[in-house]
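Write out this protein's structure.
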Amino acid sequence: MTHPTKPPRTVPTPPGVAARPRRRRFLAAATGAAAGAASIGLPMVARGQAGPVTLRWQSAWPAKDIFHEYAVDYARKVGDMTGGDLKIDMLPAGAVVPAFGLLDAVSKGALDGGHGVLVYHYGKDPALGLWGSGPAFGMDANMLLAWHRYGGGQELLAKVYAALGANVASFLYGPMPTQPLGWFKKPVTKIGDFAGLKFRTAGLSTDVFTGMGAVVDPLPADAIVQAMSKGVIDAAEYNNMTSDRQLGLPDMASVCMLQSFHQNAEQFEILVNRDRFKALPAAMQAIVAHAVDAASADLAWKAIDRYSKDYRELQAKQGVRFYKTPDAVLQTELEVYDKVTAKKASESPLFKEILDSQRAFAERAVRWDMDGTVNRRMAYNHYFARKGWPFKKG
């Protein structure tokens, strides 16, 4: 029992979900939440009761994609932390709904939860593209997550979802490394190479590449390779060396352009139906929330290991040619992004509020990072210069 002179500790509160006091004992939490859980048909869990709580979730990713592996990793962590009392059955994209239908399915209760990215909800509100699409004012994905958690982003996301009437609890995690410009039949050497190019991308990047002259098709992951094989698109970007290799993009195009601002700071989203989440015992709510942080760190470490291995394998065994995206193309991305976001900010006060919040946070965070972080290229060249530059200059 909490001492009356001390405020109770609280579980980190996701957007749209009221905070609930944390109990010291799991059994007390389960008992206290019994009425709420019964109202939506979820079995209550306490020691000695029959069976665990099982929730049906779906990811936005094909089963063979490392992204689905990340989703399964998160589900496993929740199961381990609850001693098996809360089980998440994680299905791949398309098992219940298409990848772009995840938000609606979770909100309506067709799924208890899901694993995806905010830019896949871009058609609902362009403001959701600000969590992932674009240069983020120089922030990397970990900095953008810092803004989300401590700089007001979480509250702003709650406003977006409230305006959409989305009945969800949202947790962002898993900072993604800078994504390649994409896979092409020949190196991109100038901005004119995008003129008329049929190109796959997603989120705000659809507007950016359209502004650069491309004909954009925002396909989900599992449709990219088929579209390239049939000539529906000429080139595509997806995410990283491992996912791209698993999906078969190197089989469609032998040139990969590294470095881009179009998705410089993306992260994953854990979505839970809000009624399902609130009906869980407080101890389980805490585990769902804190497992996000644990999975975020583990995901970032696994990504470094796996992506770097596949980067090497793609060069050594599949003959992929990697080139640095020319600075002129990178600069154009920034200029077009500014035009796209200025227009959308003029049309939506909430879009502008999110954009201004990111800018204010980035101004101090990025300056602090750039001024204090030592040049890794110097150290790399000192130890590994004999192996040469890792990719060709465009």
